[in-house]
Amino acid sequence: NEYKQAIIALEKSKCINPSFALARLVMALSYKRLANVKAAESCFKDALSLSPDNEVALTGLAMLFYDAGKLYQSLEVAERILILKPETLSIRKLRSNILFHLGRADESAGEIRILAEEDPGFRDFETFIDAVSPEIFEDRFGTLPDKIDLLEKKISLSEKTEDLMALSLCHLFNGEKDKAIDFLFKARALQG
Predict the structure, then answer these.
(1) Is 113's pLDDT higher than 90?
(2) How far is CA 32 from CA 40, 96, 115, 178, in A?
(3) Cβ proximity of 35 and 3 under 8 Å
(4) Distance of alpha carbon 192 from alpha carbon 189, whole angstroms
(5) 3-class DSSP assignment, residue 7
(6) Burial zone of 40 (CB within 10 Å; 0-12 exposed, 13-18 middle, 19+ buried)
(7) What is the pLDDT of residues 43-83, one digit of tens each?
(8) Containing H/E element for 13?
(9) Using CA atoms in the order 46, 49, 53, 58, what is the torsion angle rounded to 10 degrees?
(10) How far apart are CA 171 and CA 17, in angstroms?
C-alpha cells in the first residue's frame, strides 16, 4: 500500500531531521487514510509540538476529532484556529456543525449569520434573492407577507418541519435573512 510505504519513508526522514514538521503532517494524513485515528492524532500533535500555530495540523486534528465523534475536542481545536485566523470560513462551517450536534443551535445559527455576511457564496445567493421581486410570489394564497402570517399562525398551533422550512424560505424571499436562519434551525432541531 502506498500510504504504508510513505509512512516508512517518513519515519526514516524523521530520524534524519527530527524537527521537520511537514514529515509528521504527511504521516498524520497517511495514517488518517489508513483509518488509524490514534496514530494520526499522535502525528498531528507531534507536528503541533514543533509548530504550535500550524494551521494545516490544527485543521487536520479538528477534522480527525470531528470524524471520530470527539466533538468537544474538535470544537476546542476549531476555536483555537479561529483565534489565530478568524477569517477561516471552512472552520466557521465546521464550528457551526459541531455546535449544532452538541445541541447548541443558537450558537450554531450565530456562526451561520457570520458566514452569511462574510462568505462570498452566501453573498452571491443573497444578491440573487434580492433580485427576485416579492410580487412573483403572489398567487391565490396571497402575498408573501400574507403567507408568512398564515404560516406563523399554523406553527403557533403545531410546529412541523415542513411548515418551518416554508416559513424560513418565505422570510428569506422577503429579505429577512436572520428570521430565515432562525426558522431553518428550528426545523433542523425538530428533525433531531
Answers:
(1) no
(2) 5, 23, 28, 38
(3) no
(4) 5
(5) helix
(6) buried
(7) 999 999 999 999 999 999 999 999 999 999 999 999 999 99
(8) helix 2-16
(9) 30
(10) 58
| Res. 126 pLDDT band, cuts 50 70 90 | low
Q: Could you tell me if 169 and 144 are in contact, meaning their C-beta atoms sit under 8 angstroms apart? A: no
Residue 139 bridge partners (DSSP): 142
Amino acid letter for position 104: R
Q: How far apart are CA 43 and CA 7, in angstroms?
A: 11
pLDDT digits (tens, 9 = 90+) for 8-37: 777 777 767 777 788 888 889 899 989 999
* Number of CB atoms found within 10 A of residue 2's CB: 8
- DSSP secondary structure, 128-187, as one string: HHHHS-GGGG-BTTB-HHHHHHHHHHHHHH---HHHHHHHHHHHHHTT-HHHHHHHHHHH
Distances (CA, A) of 103 to 107, 155, 187: 9, 22, 14
Amino acid at 150: L
- The cell numbers describing 163, all together, are 411548515
Q: What are the CA-CA distances from residue 104 to residues 10, 39, 184, 186 (Å)?
A: 41, 31, 14, 12
